[in-house]
């Protein structure tokens, strides 16, 4: 392999490395979003901005938190994401590959405290995983030089305060601190004397800040309306490391180095409606707007530049997207409640920008859930989500890697709440 080929391979590889990392950490409407921040809400299509249901209002609508009946309480929950993605090559279309089986386990922890029954103020704390996933393709699959494996973990920590203006209106706001870690592997298109391809790894830590604000309006005993705004979270990575395992004869072209970058996770605005038909049946409708248009380019600054390794400025050209959610809850008796829901999630990824790291497409979600009241103070919530991604065929303009992707996932979840 001559020097020119080394240069082209290295530059493209590093570009896709960093692209993969930030696709994983910012894809809110794509394959790495975790819409599992409340088991009751998940059972209703993950709708809940226009309702005051439980402690998960810390995320869905801080304004509704002030309408909670209990003086204090906490909720601890977990979900179990079991994704499946299949890749089919372009014509002649005989080669296929599937991601390795794995289970993601995002958690939620919410705690709310009201100083006294008549107090208009209450405070809360939320800890949740809005982004995170593990995707692992076989090491020898056709796209190994784009991605072999990525493992992302994030935590958002949100202290929150809510104020009940009167019997109809509640306001709330929360400060968000975001922190996360990641690890990434992919093949390097250079073989050693035994014919084995090299490998590159990328890892680092990221952090940022934002806020979550909401208003809740209880129009009457039947109708409630909510609006929630989650700000951009400005994420920065400093001192991320990139390392390569390649033959020594070409190691100068693949230096171990660090990098830094910064970008904003998109704003999310949600309008929610809740309607109580009677003492047993309640319905919810949420519309999420995700401001993905702000993600138009990716800029990477490497600490060590050579004549082969340059800083990166790459176009992404994402578009704004929407998610439409509908759910219902039915009180079966004093002990049991049941839920059903559905949603339609529009992809922000334009044609020509699809990648195997986040093979994103429009998705349909079908949900179900239930609550069992163990005692007057202890509640157990369970949910089940099935996601079906629409089949999507595309060729990436930058890497020229194309094919057809089909994804789906099954996600059971459970939570326990205790109120004082």
Task: Produce the secondary structure layout.
Layout lengths: L2 H24 L12 H5 L13 H4 L11 E8 L2 E7 L7 E3 L8 E8 L6 E8 L3 E5 L12 E16 L4 E23 L5 E22 L4 E8 L2 E13 L11 E9 L2 E9 L4 E10 L6 E6 L9 E4 L5 E11 L4 E10 L17 E11 L4 E12 L2 E4 L6 E18 L1
Antiparallel strand pairs: 1-4, 1-22, 2-3, 2-22, 4-5, 5-7, 6-7, 7-8, 8-9, 9-10, 9-11, 10-13, 11-12, 12-15, 13-14, 14-17, 15-16, 17-18, 18-19, 19-20, 20-22, 21-22
Overall outline: elongated
Name of the CATH class? Mainly Beta
So, CATH architecture? Beta Barrel
How many strand segments?
22
Structural summary, described in words:
The protein is elongated. It starts with a helix and ends with a strand. It is mainly beta. It contains three helices and 22 strands. A 14-stranded antiparallel beta barrel has the order 1-4-5-7-8-9-10-13-14-17-18-19-20-22. The protein has helices at residues 3-26, 39-43, 57-60, and strands at 72-79, 82-88, 96-98, 107-114, 121-128, 132-136, 149-164, 169-191, 197-218, 223-230, 233-245, 257-265, 268-276, 281-290, 297-302, 312-315, 321-331, 336-345, 363-373, 378-389, 392-395, 402-419. Residues 1-8 and 14-31 have low confidence and may be disordered.
């Amino acid at each position: 392999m001559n020097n020119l080929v080394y240069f082209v391979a290295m530059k493209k590889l590093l570009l896709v490395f960093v692209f993969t990392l930030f696709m994983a950490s910012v894809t809110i409407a794509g394959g790495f979003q975790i819409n599992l921040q409340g088991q009751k809400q998940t059972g209703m299509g993950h709708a809940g901005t226009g309702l005051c249901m439980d402690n998960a209002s810390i995320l869905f609508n801080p304004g509704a938190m002030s309408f909670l009946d209990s003086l204090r309480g906490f909720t601890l929950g977990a979900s179990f994401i079991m994704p499946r993605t299949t890749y089919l090559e372009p014509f002649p279309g005989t080669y296929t590959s599937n991601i390795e089986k794995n289970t993601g386990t995002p958690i939620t922890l919410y705690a709310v405290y009201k100083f006294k029954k008549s107090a208009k103020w209450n405070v809360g704390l939320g800890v949740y995983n809005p982004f995170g996933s593990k995707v692992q393709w076989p090491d020898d699959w056709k796209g190994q030089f784009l991605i072999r494996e990525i493992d992302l973990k994030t935590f958002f920590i949100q202290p929150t305060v809510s104020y009940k203006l009167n019997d109809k209106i509640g306001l709330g706001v929360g400060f968000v601190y975001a922190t996360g870690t990641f690890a990434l592997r992919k093949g390097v298109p250079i073989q050693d004397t035994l014919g084995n391809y090299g490998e590159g790894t990328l890892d680092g830590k990221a952090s940022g800040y934002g806020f979550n604000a909401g208003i809740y309006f209880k129009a009457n005993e039947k109708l409630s309306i909510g609006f929630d705004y989650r700000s951009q979270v400005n994420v920065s990575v400093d001192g991320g490391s990139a390392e390569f395992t390649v033959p020594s004869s070409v190691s100068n072209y693949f230096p171990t180095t660090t990098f830094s970058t910064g970008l904003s996770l998109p704003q999310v605005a949600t309008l929610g409606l809740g309607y109580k038909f009677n003492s047993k049946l309640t319905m919810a409708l949420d519309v999420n707007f995700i401001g993905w248009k702000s993600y138009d380019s990716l800029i990477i600054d490497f600490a060590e530049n050579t004549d082969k390794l340059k800083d990166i400025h790459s176009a992404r050209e994402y578009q704004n997207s929407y998610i439409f959610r509908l759910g219902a809850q039915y009180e079966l008796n004093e002990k049991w409640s049941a839920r059903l829901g559905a949603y339609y999630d529009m992809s922000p990824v334009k044609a020509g920008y699809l990648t195997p790291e986040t093979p994103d497409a429009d998705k349909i979600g079908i949900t179900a859930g239930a609550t069992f009241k163990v005692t007057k103070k202890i509640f157990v919530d369970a949910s089940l989500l099935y996601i079906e991604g629409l089949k999507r065929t595309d060729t990436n303009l930058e890497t020229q890697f194309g094919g057809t992707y089909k994804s789906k996932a099954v996600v059971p979840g459970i939570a326990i709440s205790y109120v004082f």
